[in-house]
């Protein structure tokens, strides 16, 4: 097993015919992901590398089983694409696009949360948005809905990974792979200020996953998602968690590449995050390689 | 994109907010003309993109026309945190004692996945100070990003914050500020102080306004407000290449990498190695020689930089492409500082071969980021000592 | 008994200190309504005829039991006042104001419906909006939250009345009073195109009310609320219903005073409404006095 | 408030909708100038607030400048359903055969408590005709009034309606129309025909746009577009008094009452009595003598009216006030037609006493609305026969 996605997950690619969409569709299929169709408004009826293209998610969904959609749409249309998938009843929506206006994301996330509540209260599957500005998610050896390098995730491992950063996700994945630990599922939640899924949303899934033994949380400065994660871990989790925080030496008031990575006043400081993890008994690695040491330690390996 | 006070005021005025009258001037004589026109005490305020203008002497009350001229002479050309003041806003002065000063603002708040409206009766000081000393004096309220702030919500917040004055007018101003924030894609809007006069009418005396860069495509009318001369010249050049670049104070090691997370971590590693990063530079995904070349060129121009640390991780990045970019910079004579790099990618052997061919002590590859960072830190610190 | 409001209903008046608000507060109290407080932003702390005035509904609710609010606020602020009451958790909101922009009402009604669903799904009392542009509602001899003439509703009767029109409500009430039948509860739902509560929303309440024997529905041209009511009656109601439709001779395309009273194309025609009621076995009176005859007939009196 | 075609087009243009170029002209010479400027076939279109312009000959294709002038002479001054044409819109003609004509529109829809978007590939004809003949050819979609139409929804509707052309451009146009409808408080917006050219690009050839009168307070910039000369003079006068007044065709009984419902019922009662109502007039609540006087004066001015039926029900209305208003009109010589009235209210005795004093056969009170209506109908019909 794994969380969120596996060998049986049927995926549509929104924006498949664009450059990014096409490249990553190829890579996802090479990894083994069951991509069933693409969506590009105005190109409905065409095919792309043997896959049918539809004008809308609704059309794709009427013709294929769809468990997830991955969105490669330029920033101006990205939030609309999220809502299209969500309203069409796709239960898992992954937004890769970087540079989506924050106000668009606020509106989309609020609506997705509402649709999720409505769906769940009516016994439906709910709707989950991951991203934007994220590398997607991948269950090693099973299914990739994202843009991470395939090689790192070829074999299944037993460590769950959640990260705000793309490259650090790969770096940590590689280190876990080299250490012989490997990853069960890796979830890149994205570096924007307003995202669909946070650490605290993913942690319970790993807690419930019989094939995950420990979880690595890769946070960074800005916001209070790490604090919320620590609170959740403290109150609800039995499995061990190891954390890492990047940007600990960044000065306040400067946006460190990620729109969400900024210390404003006393919000988002590394001190606050370190204190929260300490309070939750979560060891925090000072360097990336130390993550491996700590994971081994918490697993008594 | 940060706006100047006078620009933020202009935006708020477009949404109907009652803003204190003022005019921009570039010379003391222009200030004199404006002060004469207003025919009352004025305030001369430096227009620069940094906080703490007041403490730096960049905001001066001017009871007479001559005094306004004199203050303008003092302020224009002065340096505030590294930025030269080349224009001032001249506003009518307000008799602060005849009213009260409050604070209202809206920020993008990751924790509520929307804007948070903040209101405090402790106006006129930095809100961070209030937050630190007496957080209970700031009323926070999540604003629905679809509907915006409603009048009744604004009234409730104003009541909770203990605002005195015309409740409906104050709430109306907050609603208009919310409209401005949502429609103009603000990251941050502040009205501080929000002055309430003896009649209870609100008036915006000072503002901060910052717009989401990702949304600038729908605010083309504001593009001309971007002032490259008010930004760090290297930040302007970085923007041209599409790099995310931040100049950091007191650093000596130039840092570049692919991805915000890895660059942030690189800063941390440089710090641990005993040096100080001089910048943050994210070159984005898929590093080709050309991109690396541009990045190295950019960082080399920073006179604070004594050594460069390159940290690349990518499944598809080729080490030889990175090496080629650095070598090009060397060959063109741009690279005069040592480059210490770690590249996790394919073609490491090819990269080493290229570097061996060049055989310059200025370029070295290391197997992990710590060794590369430590080498860069040592080089930078040594260069500093030599000076 | 009666529906929606009774002797124990505690009412706040939003806009109490305005001319209309003040006059009707007086009349409601004369009728016996338990008015507990008024709300006028900026006048909090004052009193009005012995009643405390608050700056907000939330403040009023913190200091008094509040079962319903009645809104006398000028059109530009009316929808906001509705949302204030709804968000403050007032379960019954009556909007008297005439001339509220339709777009404002669309937004407010959608949000009230959502709050109602949320509240009900969490075991709450829900939120119901009646109006705008309506005379309010009155349970004869018990409680008036509205602007109808008191004298007609002094004694309790056993006929439920629902109407889109104000004056015809009074006229029908008077006729029922004179006939010795009287009204249990009268609900004026309002003449605007977008209103909070429709015939079909009120009918189940009367069906469930042991003190109502029959229901009179006073419709008019425009929209399809009467058709929806007929559908509901056909499928769900055991109690007899009598209908009346005004504006049957009005030409198409002309707005008959009420913003909602307009025949557009083939929508809102009297023919459609008559056919729907016929299909639901609901007798339709040709004149107001015939309502009485038909009510007597369906009650076998 | 109904807008003229050219006004509706201007509003849509403000929201970015691609609208066919055109200019307004008041004289045939102006039309000639515009046609010469365009240098291509034009269409000359009467600008009046009624439907069916085309059938009435008010829309004419003009292949040459001379023909445009000639058509303008025919159209300007013509009468369409009682309204005189005093201006025309001259637009560039489009080669309809080189594209397709669709319909898109939005209306306030009581049944979904919001706007309904309608789209049909059957463009260029009245949508009512399509609705009657082939309702399945109209795609209907509820628009969320808070968020407005989303691009993906617009695309789905366009696909369902079978629109051919550039899907994204067509959807974008629909989104902009939705924005215009919501931000300008439309009751109705139509783009018909929506022309799709050979490249698939949409172009609005004709529009209808009507704005919610209740929302005009926030569209003050459009107040100058209101053309009183294009409305019935009595409707203009009624608006001055704040009455809801509708002139009805072919009527002979003037009808007035308090409340829309009671007046609608009064129309029905006049019809049942064998006459035809000449108007709808709601004087609103709390009838005082002055209001009744103004209403009677207004209705009396209508030459179609041969008798007046007054129907008042109100707990607080005094019958004597109504009587006083009518008597004042009589005394001033304004009232020349019989008034038959029913007043449910207090002070009936006083009213009767006042009327007895005047003792004019022109004014009579009746105990119920049927008797009053029948008397008015009889008087009106008799007056007609006498003629």
Summarize this structure as a short list of keywords or feature phrases:
heterotetramer; A: 301 residues; alpha/beta; Rossmann fold; seven-stranded mixed sheet; 9 helices; 36% helix; globular; B: 387 residues; seven-stranded antiparallel sheet; four-stranded antiparallel sheet; 12 helices; elongated
Question: Can you walk me through this structure?
Answer:
The complex is a heterotetramer, with two copies of chain A (301 residues) and two copies of chain B (387 residues). With 301 residues, chain A is of the alpha/beta class. Chain A has two domains: 10-131, NAD(P)-binding Rossmann-like Domain (Rossmann fold); 155-300, Rossmann fold (3-Layer(aba) Sandwich). Chain A has nine helices and 14 strands. Chain A has helices at 19-31, 57-63, 75-87, 102-121, 166-178, 199-208, 225-236, 270-279, 288-298, and strands at residues 10-14, 34-39, 47-48, 51-54, 68-71, 92-95, 128-131, 136-139, 143-146, 159-163, 183-188, 214-220, 241-246, 284-285. In chain A, the strands form two sheets. A seven-stranded mixed sheet of chain A has the order 3-4-2-1-5-6-7, sandwiched between helices. A seven-stranded mixed sheet of chain A has the order 9-8-11-10-12-13-14, sandwiched between helices. Chain A is globular. The mean pLDDT of chain A is 93. Chain B is an alpha+beta fold. Helices cover 37% and strands 26% of the residues of chain B. Chain B has helices at 5-14, 28-38, 65-75, 127-133, 151-161, 167-183, 233-241, 260-272, 289-300, 319-331, 348-358, 369-386; strands spanning 2-3, 22-25, 42-46, 59-62, 79-80, 83-84, 88-92, 100-109, 114-120, 139-143, 186-196, 202-204, 207-211, 244-247, 253-257, 279-282, 307-318, 339-346, 363-365. In chain B, strands 1, 8, 9, 10, 11, 12 and 13 form a seven-stranded antiparallel sheet that branches. In chain B, α10 links the parallel β17 and β18 (339-346). In chain B, α7 (233-241) runs antiparallel to α9. Chain B is elongated, with a radius of gyration of 25 Å. The two termini of chain B are 37 Å apart. At the A-B interface, α4 and α5 of A face α4, α8 and β17 of B.
């Amino acid at each position: 097993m794994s969380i969120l996605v596996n060998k049986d997950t049927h995926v549509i690619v929104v924006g498949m015919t664009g450059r990014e969409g096409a490249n990553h569709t190829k890579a996802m299929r090479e990894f083994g992901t069951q991509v069933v169709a693409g969506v590009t408004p105005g190109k409905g009826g065409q095919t792309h590398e043997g896959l049918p293209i539809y004008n809308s998610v609704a059309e794709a969904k009427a013709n294929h089983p769809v468990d997830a959609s991955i969105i490669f749409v330029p920033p101006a249309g990205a939030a609309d694409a999220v809502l299209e998938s969500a309203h069409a009843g796709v239960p898992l929506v992954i937004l890769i696009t970087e540079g989506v206006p924050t106000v668009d994301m606020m509106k989309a996330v609020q609506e997705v949360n509402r649709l999720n509540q409505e769906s769940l209260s009516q016994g439906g599957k709910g709707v989950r948005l991951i991203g934007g500005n994220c590398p997607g998610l991948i269950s090693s050896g099973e299914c990739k809905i994202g843009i991470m390098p395939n090689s790192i995730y070829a074999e299944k491992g037993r460590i769950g990974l959640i990260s705000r950063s793309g490259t650090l996700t790969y770096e940590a994945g590689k280190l876990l792979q080299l250490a012989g630990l490997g990853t069960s599922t890796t979830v890149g939640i994205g570096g924007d200020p307003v995202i669909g899924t946070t650490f605290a949303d993913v942690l319970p899934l790993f807690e419930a996953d019989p094939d995950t033994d420990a979880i690595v949380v890769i946070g960074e400065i800005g916001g209070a998602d790490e604090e919320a994660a620590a609170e959740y871990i403290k109150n609800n989790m039995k499995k061990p968690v190891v954390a890492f925080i990047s940007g600990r030496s960044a000065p306040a008031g400067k946006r460190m590449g990620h729109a969400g990575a900024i210390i404003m006043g006393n919000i988002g400081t590394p001190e606050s995050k370190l204190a929260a993890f300490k309070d939750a008994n979560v060891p925090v690695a000072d360097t990336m390689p130390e993550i491996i040491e700590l994971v081994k330690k918490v697993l008594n390996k | 994109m940060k706006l100047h006070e006078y620009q933020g005021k202009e935006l708020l005025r477009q949404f109907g907010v009652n803003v204190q009258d003022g005019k921009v001037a570039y010379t003391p004589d222009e200030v004199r003309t404006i002060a004469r026109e207003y025919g009352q005490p004025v305030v001369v305020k430096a227009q620069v993109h940094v906080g703490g203008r007041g403490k730096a002497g960049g905001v001066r009350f001017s009871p007479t026309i001559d005094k306004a001229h004199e203050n303008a002479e003092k302020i224009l050309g002065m340096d505030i945190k590294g930025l030269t003041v080349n224009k001032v806003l001249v506003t009518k002065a307000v008799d602060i004692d005849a009213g009260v000063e409050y604070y209202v603002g809206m920020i993008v708040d990751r924790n509520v996945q929307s804007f948070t409206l903040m209101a405090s009766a402790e106006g006129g000081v930095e809100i961070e100070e209030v937050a630190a000393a007496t957080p209970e004096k700031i009323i926070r309220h999540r604003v629905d990003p679809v509907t915006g702030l409603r009048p009744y919500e604004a009234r409730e917040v104003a009541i909770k914050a203990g605002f005195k004055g015309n409740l409906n007018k104050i709430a109306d101003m907050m609603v208009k500020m919310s409209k401005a924030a949502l429609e103009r894609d603000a990251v941050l809007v502040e009205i501080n102080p929000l002055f309430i006069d003896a009649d209870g009418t609100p008036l915006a005396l000072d503002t901060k306004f910052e717009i989401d860069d990702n949304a600038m495509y729908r605010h083309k009318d504001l593009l001309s407000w971007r002032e490259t001369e008010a930004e760090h010249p290297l930040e302007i050049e970085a923007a041209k290449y599409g790099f995310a670049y931040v100049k950091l104070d007191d650093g000596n090691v130039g840092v570049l990498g692919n991805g915000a997370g890895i660059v942030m971590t690189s800063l941390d590693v440089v710090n641990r190695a005993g040096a100080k990063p001089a910048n943050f530079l994210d070159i984005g995904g898929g590093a080709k020689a050309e991109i690396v070349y541009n990045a190295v060129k950019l960082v080399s121009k920073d006179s604070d930089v004594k050594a460069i640390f390159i940290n690349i991780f990518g499944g598809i990045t080729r080490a030889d492409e990175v090496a080629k970019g650095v070598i090009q910079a060397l060959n063109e004579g741009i690279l005069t500082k040592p480059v210490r790099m770690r590249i996790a990618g394919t073609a490491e052997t090819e990269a080493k071969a290229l570097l061996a061919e060049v055989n310059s002590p200025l370029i070295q590859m290391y197997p992990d980021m710590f060794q590369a960072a430590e080498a860069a830190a040592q080089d930078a610190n040594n260069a500093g000592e030599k000076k």
